[in-house]
Automatic annotation (TrEMBL):
GO molecular function: signal peptidase activity
Gene3D superfamilies hit by this protein: Umud Fragment, subunit A
Protein known as: Signal peptidase I
Source species: Microbacterium wangchenii
Transmembrane segments: 30-60, 170-192
Region (Disordered): 1-22
């Protein structure tokens, strides 16, 4: 009968392998949770931007616009997202920021602060001024030109608004959605693989013979 002497280094080697497998599985699990947290944060940020740019203004019949000039600095620097809501001209007060058509019936608008409110020949008009401008706007603003008053503003999101409302809106949304889907799928499969490794390591620890 042939006798064999157990290799004294065999079990420690197996134990170290199992420990390494468990450690690797735990790392993958940690990466999974970090990935999920990051994905959730990005998704929440995107939803918040969409709500600020599209959802909330739509609820009040307003609109989101982007400040392009320095006339309302420092409060509303270029790139600021301004959300306006319809307001009865009679309710507009001195000190309000109004968005109005530069010329009645045309699309171009500007957002300036009301410095006076008067009736001219029985018609309500407003005198406006950019906070950063040295003087008042040259022409009075008629009620028919008013698009609304400033509701809230968000710095820098105006550039995002320009992208979302530009001709490439569909492409941008598709790329972002596709990127998030691919990232989420990668995180999920990494988590599944890590769980399998951890389960295999635990089975090996319980029954060392399965590792031989």
């Amino acid at each position: 009968m042939t006798h064999t002497t157990p290799d004294p280094d065999f079990r420690p080697t197996r134990r170290s392998q199992r420990a390494a497998a468990r450690e690797e599985a735990r790392k993958h699990s940690l990466l999974h949770y970090l990935g999920v947290s990051l994905s959730a944060a990005v998704l929440m940020l995107m939803l918040a931007v969409a709500a600020a740019v599209i959802g909330v203004p739509a609820l009040v019949g307003g609109s989101a616009m982007t400040v392009l000039t320095q006339s309302m600095e420092p409060r509303l620097p270029p790139g600021t997202l301004v959300v306006i809501r319809p307001t009865d001209p009679e309710d507009i007060r001195v000190g309000d920021v109004v968005t109005y058509q530069i010329r009645s019936g045309e699309a171009a608008v500007v957002s300036h602060r009301v410095v006076s409110k008067t009736y001219e020949n029985g018609e309500l008009t407003f005198l406006t001024k950019g906070d950063n401008n040295p003087g008042n706007d040259p022409e009075p603003v008629h009620a028919v030109q008013i698009r609304g008053t400033l509701w809230y503003s968000l710095p820098l999101l105006g550039w995002v608004n320009n992208v979302l409302n530009g001709p490439n809106r569909v492409i941008v949304l598709a790329v972002v959605a596709g990127g998030l889907f691919v990232y989420a799928a990668g995180v999920f499969f990494t988590w599944v693989r890590g769980r399998r490794r951890l389960a295999r390591a635990e089975r090996t620890e319980e029954d060392p013979a399965t590792a031989m």
